[in-house]
Write a structure and sequence with these properties.
This protein is mostly helical. The protein has helices at 8-27, 39-74, 83-104, 118-121, 129-159. The chain contains 5 helices and no strands. The model has no long low-confidence stretch (mean pLDDT 76).
């Protein structure tokens, strides 16, 4: 089925379709795609899109994947100093993604904006358990990022004994 695909071409098409729908909604005065009685659906759509792009593409997709690929290749194949910590960082990001999928699949969904700012996640604005799961997602993904950063920093610090220092450190090589 097209909606549950793992093909990168289909996923790119879904993201493109999703972003076009949001732009069409914002281009028309009033509500165009989402009825006035279902304004929460628009907030859930914006939250899902924002969280997916920022916290699932930029953080793990660009920073962690690029660091795991570029650091060992840039410095003559040095190995990471803490490979188990790096593995834990990867699997905790997978756990975070699963928590977010469960949160988004709730009937009420996560409609607190892509920043998950505290006043919007409080009990006064959203009493759904999905918001609590989304906040848990952010904590687990933050832990994953910290573990990956520790791996990168410790590896680069220990690699300076082999002639690598901050002055000749270049990710674009």
């Amino acid at each position: 089925m097209f909606w549950s695909t793992t093909s990168y071409v289909n996923l790119a098409s879904l993201y493109g379709l999703f972003s076009i729908l949001i732009r069409v909604e914002l281009s028309v005065s009033g509500s165009f795609l989402f009825s006035d009685g279902n304004q929460g659906a628009f907030y859930r759509a914006v939250t899902s899109h924002g969280v997916g792009m920022v916290f699932l593409f930029i953080m793990p997709g660009l920073i962690s994947a690029l660091g795991n690929y570029a650091i060992p290749h840039t410095y003559s194949g040095i190995d990471f100093a803490t490979p188990r910590l790096n593995n834990l960082a990867f699997w905790s990001s997978v756990l975070a993604i699963q928590i977010l999928i469960v949160a988004i699949s709730f009937r009420d969904g996560v409609s607190a904006g892509w920043t998950l700012y505290y006043p919007l996640t409080g009990i006064d604005f959203s009493s759904s358990p999905a918001v609590s799961l989304a906040v848990l997602f952010l904590h687990v993904l933050g832990l994953s990022s910290e573990l990956g950063a520790i791996t990168f920093l410790v590896s680069l610090h220990l690699a300076k004994n082999s002639g690598i220092n901050v002055l000749n450190f270049c990710l674009i090589s």
